[in-house]
Amino acid sequence: MNTLRLMKKEFRETRTQGVIFTAVIIFFGATSVLMQKFIPQLVPENLAEAFTPSLAAGLNDYVGNTLQIGSVVAILITISAVAGEREGGTLELLLARPVSKAQVIASKFLVRASYVFLGNIVAAVVTWYYAYYLFESFPMGKLILSAIAMGTVTSFVVGLTMIFSAWRSSKLTAAFWSGGLSLALAILPTVMSPYDLISPFNYGDVARRVLFQEVTALGYLKNIAVLAGFTLFCLLLAYYVFVKSERIS
Amino acid sequence: MTYLRTENLTKIYPNGVKAVDSLDLEVEKGDVYGLIGPNGAGKTTTIRIITGILAATAGAVRFEGETGLDLRRTGYLPEGASFYRFMKVREYLTWACSLYEVGETAERVERSLEVVGMKDLGERNLNELSKGQKQRVGIAQAIVHDPDILVLDEPTSGLDPVGKKKILSIIQELAGQGKTILTSSHILPELSRVCTSVGIIKGGSMVLQGPMKDLKRKFSRAKVEVGFESVEDGFVPDLRSLEYVSDVEQLDGEELRFVVNVTDEEAARTKFPRYLVDSGNVLTYFDLNRATLEDIFLETMEGGSS
Known about the structure:
The structure holds two protein chains of two kinds. By secondary structure, chain A is an all-alpha fold. Chain A has one domain (3-248). Chain A has helices at 2-30, 32-42, 45-48, 55-78, 80-88, 91-95, 101-135, 140-167, 171-191, 200-203, 206-209, 217-244. Chain A is elongated. By secondary structure, chain B is an alpha/beta fold. Chains A and B meet through α1 and α6 of A and α2 of B.
């Protein structure tokens, strides 16, 4: 029950961040389809012929933009999780309550993950709306499955950032470490193929493939399961770091 | 069985600093125990280990014989406590109380607000409070679940005299309700007003502890300032020869006023006034200053151990 009470506090504290996350995801992700439709009218006439708006290209942009921007915003809303309590001087009192460190980590993660999933689902609905009115009807189910996959990838980023937030006293240094590692994990597979298997972002491509029927149901679930495993690993590491850390402020 | 005790408590930080060194502390039920020591003596680290915020490198904390303090029965106020700025006072106390799962949350919140005299400020945002008001909220959140033991780290730190007086009177009221209180400070007159027991900590080790009355007896000395209308010749040497007088000093510029150091407070209250009256000199002034916690502390610090 105390995990729920901690979550209640966390929701209260970060609700603005949740709204910002959703707004950013909608703005940069869901409007990709809208942008795709109107790019020929936005660029000079001599370039306009080079663009042939299509729903497929719009959806491709939607997944790419949502994952990239979503990951950045996920880092920003998570760095304050534990480091913010340290900076604000509230961690000492929290640790003296009858709550475990596991509950603290779990509540902070669950709240942020819920923002991530909720934001992605809302963005999927907005995308469906634009697709229907600007191009053609597109199955909502596929968009939801894609949103769930993107939510899982972004939740991994939340979990990864939790490690550094639990480790550092400053939000800025937590952001630096998490941003740097996320970038490395995203870039590494593109330059060194053996690292494909250890890059969560690589598995996140299932969010795009599910839209274009390039993945089976089992393949989809496997990718989601691998991503969830990466996230769980991050959370266990964050918990370990939090337990070992002696930083109070 | 001792209510709360630490056994050989030791804390070495990762940078190698030994903040607490084989510390044995004993708090009896109903005590108001003052942990005193100079800055950097290890008071806060000790308190953080007791409350489970930090892990000890060695040693143990026992509460009613069990390992570790029962946090559900503990109220804690850290030094310079900070609260969630986005919450209102009443909302914060309600949330804090709910974590202890004790029920009757609304009633408990109102009761704690009443104890600290903040009923009117319940709907105020926590970031709008003065330092003194925040400290009172700190006490309120520590008592909201009606704990058996309160741990207060420097509860009057940084407060103005009015704020200090208010906090000390709250502590006295809580002590009157039978709460066991462990508090730390380096401001001794404050602690001597409220404590029934003290522990003096130096360099992370306990150098002296016990009930205040025992320590005062142990450090049973007094300074008595006396004044006379006139004194007979040889009076001062006679005073010096008394078995319970260690020294007699004449006050600067005052021919007939003296400060007499008495080694036994009991004698200073009983035998000494009688001696002065019987001596035939006309006594015009008598002021007895008992050994204070500050005297005990300073002597212990200078001596190194009891």
